[in-house]
Amino acid sequence: MTVACAIYDADGALYLAADSALMGLPVQSAATKISSIDLPPLAWATAGDEAIGDLWSQWLTDQLDPPPDPLDWERLIAAAVQRLAVLNGMRTGAASANHVGWDPAGDLTQVLLVGFVGSTAEIAHLEVNGDVTLHVLAGRHFAAIGAGRDHAWTAYQLLTERGQLPAEPAAALLEVTDLAARYAPSCAPPVSAVKVNRDGVESVATTS
Questions:
Q1: DSSP state of 196
Q2: CB 52 within 8 A of CB 91
Q3: Which residues pair with 121 in a beta bridge?
Q4: Are 184 and 167 in contact (CB under 8 A)?
Q5: What is the chain's alpha carbon radius of gyration, rounded to the nearest angstrom?
Q6: How remote is the C-alpha of 189 from its chain's centroid?
Q7: CA of 31: how far to CAs of 81, 90, 115, 190, in Å?
Q8: What are 16's strand-pairing partners?
Q9: 3-class secondary structure, 16
Q10: What distance lies between CA 41 and its chain's CA centroid?
Q11: What pLDDT, on the 0 to 100 scale, is given for residue 11?
């Protein structure tokens, strides 16, 4: 399982962080759960079935190499949601054919996608039921997905209310995601984070 969080900086940059739990167990993995490309500058993390997440990530990378022209968030999200639905549908179809149950939280995949398409910054949450939440468009600067989502939101709101959330967005994101990773079931630190701006994607930090 995974916890992944994103923050939009008022200065225009976006940050994405994810924990290091491996195969749904609280066991650390050396590999980052964050994938990215520089053209357009996008980073994403998936939560749920890791095989589906890997297939979706490879599909997105292939679709954007090179990126189609014109490309905007509406076009990108429409294609991304459709592909995720196909992959999740294969999983549920196989489970039904084999007469076994499945858990939407663990067996299906959701995506937290951040970055710039054109000049527009966005944090997009692609959910397992096909819904999409565009956080920046709605005026929200924080998002979280995965098994640690509720833990992350609680930490973010509590630190904000107490005036203890670090002012620097990367530090704030790392603190919130690390707290969620330590206390959410089947999540684990260390937490890695990237910064996305109009020039590309760069690694910013990893917690201990």
A1: E
A2: yes
A3: 116
A4: no
A5: 16
A6: 16
A7: 26, 26, 21, 11
A8: 6, 194
A9: strand
A10: 15
A11: 84
Q: Which DSSP letter does residue 68 get? A: P
Task: State mean pLDDT over 41-66.
Answer: 95
φ and ψ of 203, to 5 deg: -70, 140
Task: List C-alpha distances in Å: 11 to 43, 121, 166.
Answer: 18, 11, 15
Q: Does residue 21 contact residue 169 with C-beta atoms inside 8 Å?
A: no
Return d(Cα 16, Cα 192) in angstroms, integer: 8
Measured between alpha carbons, how far is 46 from 113 in angstroms, rounded to an integer? 9
Distance between CA atoms of 22 and 181, rounded to whole angstroms? 12
Contact predicate 46/71, CB 8 Å: no
* Cα–Cα distance list, 94 to 66, 86, 90 (Å): 33, 12, 6
d(Cα 83, Cα 29) in Å, to the nearest integer?
Answer: 27
Calpha distance 197→94 (Å, rounded): 40
Enter the pTM of the model.
0.92
- Compute CA distances 15 → 90, 143, 179, whole Å: 31, 11, 17
Contact 5, 179 (CB under 8 A): no
Query: Tokens at residue 123, please?
Result: 């944090």
How high is the pLDDT of residue 208?
76
Residue 91 has which token pair?
């999983």
At 177 the three-state DSSP class reads helix
